Amino acid sequence: MNFCSINDVDNPQGWVDEALALKKEIETYGPKVYTGKSICLLFFNPSLRTRLSMQKASFNLGIQSFIFNLNQEGWQLEFEDGTVMNGYTSEHIKEAAGVLSSYFDAIGVRSFASLSNKEEDYTEKVFNQFVKHCSIPVINMESATLHPLQSLADMITIKEFAQVKKPKVVLSWAPHPKALPQAVANSFLQWAGQMDYDFVVTHPEGYELAPEFMQGARLEYDQKKAFEGADFIYAKNWSSYEEYGQILSQDKKWMIDKVKMNLTNNAKFMHCLPVRRNVIVTDEVIDSENSIVMQQAAHRVTSANLVLRKLIG
Ligand SMILES: NCCC[C@H](NC(=O)CCC(=O)O)C(=O)O
Ligand SMILES: NC(=O)OP(=O)(O)O
């Protein structure tokens, strides 16, 4: 079994409940003694939450974790078959994946989108080579197009804070100075589409996400309209999917501020972090009582606990 996307999850709503139950179990009984199992956490990109929540969850379950910052510390990997490797790549994914599979019981991989090659990104060229060549479970720690560990944590957080059975959840684009991947937004769409939400997405024209992820969501181009009566505002920037990887707008009018939050049903504010203060969201909103970004980040451990237990627990 792998954890590449929601397609590896038989019952997403059930996983949310199981994750909350497992959290309680760990709080009651404490971490497990070492099980003899081990996991490699392999990063091509920076991380705070994913890296440390996966290490903490490993500790909780008695699994030893090993960090590998491949870009800085490993050999440059070759992903093409049949290449004459007389250039700058030193090791083929076939050998690397085979060796890692012989050392560990599972592997987590973080490899962000290039944002330059849409086809390679949307076929998950790098991540899928790990899936193909590893003989152990592979966990997505944010790939080119998806971030399921984040989305599961997001669903857990919404479950914990929802005051009504069918909350109105709004995914809002917000400006950012850098071109960012669509992974967090795509994955949120997949998971939120499986929950019992009134689910709305709002973004400027040109920021349409890939149609396959939009099933289950309503699109509203007017951000203020989208915010009306919302119970949760989930802010995120992404670069254009159509004009792939481009920044089409840096319009400050899309920043989440108090005036917009006042249109909502006293909504909770969410963001996956790291967040650019006073670009994505004002200090006033993220520092307010309605901000649940800390609880959301804490649930990254809740989510990682469950995924590790399902795969190698
Ligand atoms: N894993 C959480 C988000 C990671 C990444 N954000 C970033 O790269 C933000 C970096 C910055 O703000 O400089 C993204 O959007 O996919
Ligand atoms: N939200 C998230 O994945 O954070 P990191 O990039 O710090 O892991």
TrEMBL record:
<dbReference type="InterPro" id="IPR036901">
    <property type="entry name" value="Asp/Orn_carbamoylTrfase_sf"/>
</dbReference>
<feature type="binding site">
    <location>
        <position position="276"/>
    </location>
    <ligand>
        <name>N(2)-succinyl-L-ornithine</name>
    </ligand>
</feature>
<feature type="binding site">
    <location>
        <position position="236"/>
    </location>
    <ligand>
        <name>N(2)-succinyl-L-ornithine</name>
    </ligand>
</feature>
<comment type="pathway">
    <text>Amino-acid biosynthesis; L-arginine biosynthesis.</text>
</comment>
<comment type="similarity">
    <text>Belongs to the aspartate/ornithine carbamoyltransferase superfamily. SOTCase family.</text>
</comment>
<feature type="domain" description="Aspartate/ornithine carbamoyltransferase carbamoyl-P binding">
    <location>
        <begin position="3"/>
        <end position="160"/>
    </location>
</feature>
<feature type="domain" description="Aspartate/ornithine carbamoyltransferase Asp/Orn-binding">
    <location>
        <begin position="184"/>
        <end position="308"/>
    </location>
</feature>
<keyword id="KW-0808">Transferase</keyword>
<dbReference type="Pfam" id="PF02729">
    <property type="entry name" value="OTCace_N"/>
</dbReference>
<feature type="binding site" description="in other chain">
    <location>
        <begin position="147"/>
        <end position="150"/>
    </location>
    <ligand>
        <name>carbamoyl phosphate</name>
    </ligand>
</feature>
<dbReference type="GO" id="GO:0042450">
    <property type="term" value="P:L-arginine biosynthetic process via ornithine"/>
</dbReference>
<comment type="subunit">
    <text>Homotrimer.</text>
</comment>
<dbReference type="InterPro" id="IPR043696">
    <property type="entry name" value="ArgF'-like"/>
</dbReference>
<dbReference type="GO" id="GO:0016597">
    <property type="term" value="F:amino acid binding"/>
</dbReference>
<feature type="binding site" description="in other chain">
    <location>
        <begin position="47"/>
        <end position="50"/>
    </location>
    <ligand>
        <name>carbamoyl phosphate</name>
    </ligand>
</feature>
<dbReference type="InterPro" id="IPR006130">
    <property type="entry name" value="Asp/Orn_carbamoylTrfase"/>
</dbReference>
<protein>
    <recommendedName>
        <fullName>N-succinylornithine carbamoyltransferase</fullName>
        <ecNumber>2.1.3.11</ecNumber>
    </recommendedName>
</protein>
<dbReference type="GO" id="GO:0004585">
    <property type="term" value="F:ornithine carbamoyltransferase activity"/>
</dbReference>
<keyword id="KW-0055">Arginine biosynthesis</keyword>
<feature type="binding site" description="in other chain">
    <location>
        <position position="300"/>
    </location>
    <ligand>
        <name>carbamoyl phosphate</name>
    </ligand>
</feature>
<feature type="binding site" description="in other chain">
    <location>
        <position position="110"/>
    </location>
    <ligand>
        <name>carbamoyl phosphate</name>
    </ligand>
</feature>
<dbReference type="Pfam" id="PF00185">
    <property type="entry name" value="OTCace"/>
</dbReference>
<feature type="binding site">
    <location>
        <position position="75"/>
    </location>
    <ligand>
        <name>carbamoyl phosphate</name>
    </ligand>
</feature>
<dbReference type="InterPro" id="IPR006131">
    <property type="entry name" value="Asp_carbamoyltransf_Asp/Orn-bd"/>
</dbReference>
<feature type="binding site">
    <location>
        <position position="176"/>
    </location>
    <ligand>
        <name>N(2)-succinyl-L-ornithine</name>
    </ligand>
</feature>
<feature type="binding site" description="in other chain">
    <location>
        <begin position="272"/>
        <end position="273"/>
    </location>
    <ligand>
        <name>carbamoyl phosphate</name>
    </ligand>
</feature>
<dbReference type="InterPro" id="IPR006132">
    <property type="entry name" value="Asp/Orn_carbamoyltranf_P-bd"/>
</dbReference>
<comment type="function">
    <text>Catalyzes the transfer of the carbamoyl group from carbamoyl phosphate to the delta-amino group of N(2)-succinyl-L-ornithine to produce N(2)-succinyl-L-citrulline. Is essential for arginine biosynthesis.</text>
</comment>
<keyword id="KW-0028">Amino-acid biosynthesis</keyword>
<dbReference type="GO" id="GO:0019240">
    <property type="term" value="P:citrulline biosynthetic process"/>
</dbReference>
<feature type="binding site">
    <location>
        <position position="142"/>
    </location>
    <ligand>
        <name>N(2)-succinyl-L-ornithine</name>
    </ligand>
</feature>
